Amino acid sequence: MGKEEKDSVSNLTERIIKFRDARDWKQFHNPKDVSLSLVLEAGEVMEHFQWKNAEEMEQCVKEHRDEIGAELADVLYWVLLLGNDLGIDVLEALNRKMDENELRYSVEKAKGNHKKYTELE
Amino acid sequence: MGKEEKDSVSNLTERIIKFRDARDWKQFHNPKDVSLSLVLEAGEVMEHFQWKNAEEMEQCVKEHRDEIGAELADVLYWVLLLGNDLGIDVLEALNRKMDENELRYSVEKAKGNHKKYTELE
Amino acid sequence: MGKEEKDSVSNLTERIIKFRDARDWKQFHNPKDVSLSLVLEAGEVMEHFQWKNAEEMEQCVKEHRDEIGAELADVLYWVLLLGNDLGIDVLEALNRKMDENELRYSVEKAKGNHKKYTELE
Amino acid sequence: MGKEEKDSVSNLTERIIKFRDARDWKQFHNPKDVSLSLVLEAGEVMEHFQWKNAEEMEQCVKEHRDEIGAELADVLYWVLLLGNDLGIDVLEALNRKMDENELRYSVEKAKGNHKKYTELE
What we know:
The structure is a homotetramer.
Chain A: H1 3-6, H2 9-22, H3 31-47, H4 54-86, H5 90-104, H6 107-110
Helix pairs in contact in A: 2-4, 3-4
């Protein structure tokens, strides 16, 4: 696979599903258990930053960028696999979300203000 | 943006970062708090499947595919934003992970067997 | 300490705080990072049951009751420590919650029905 | 119930189980789904502190102590319910954990040092 092909989410999803199906693991992948993996792997990302201040986090990222990248990749793995299994196009879903976000959080009201859009007047 | 451009992760990441920076929200996005969002949004995906058996999950997906898609999109949003902020190419990281997985879990040993590779002889 | 004393939550909380303060660890225990531990330890409990059906869970509990107990104890540890640090009496808070629950989910409406009280007519 | 009785964990556990069983909810309470509640409720505690610095957290606790207490109570609720269902005495488990912690993290090595005991020489 060339770099361009690897960068495509549909190719990556296909790679994940082929990997899974060759091992006959679909039988274990009900949405509940898969979503547990999503949470647990997200937790492993979070764990890298626990007990650290801004400076220590920066140092941690410098020293452990590859490990953190591997944890983020694990989260993405489950996002793509679950999206595939549920018939959800996650890129399309995210673009739709961004359309909404852009309407909800107008630049002038949201600038420098992290409140939820429901709390913005 | 055309459909093809929207499907590209780099374009989507760019869209997220532009959205964020126009609102001056980078100041809030230290890796620790961002990773909390990752966990909390993953939890919202998981919540859809709680207390349900296989049949009820299938029904739930039929009725709430868009909501679940929106939750998965939220997880992906934070994966891409955090990857961007930490200088991590998440697609490359996932391809690397898949290279490792393919070595670790050989088809013949892993077929139908969900044990961790470390437990496979 | 006698068994009765050990069974008291206030004695257990005192034990945890003495342990912490003797090691000068209070400086690390801001509520955000402590709440991360709460989530991560809860995740470790959950991990024991992932990918398992009812029968496999029962088997798992038989074989690993002590480990699961140790994970639950970790969650309780952080509940008591955080309650202490925030000036919250967690037992009182839970009794208050139960008072509310008993009003919200009347037996006749809730019997055998797991919907949230807000969805019960 | 008098205050002293309410303060006892065994009485509180009994109250929770009676409440559950009167509503016939045991049928839903397999350990996997219950542990999801544990994680999700812990997430709700954590959410109170997200995006906040030390000062903002202090302010948040002042203004929302009761809500945070209610979230902590939810976590404790599931700890006690799950412990009950799995035949685990969580107070005993936590006392055992503290015995171990006191051996593992000796005061002289651990003082002011938050490394895991495995990393302490």
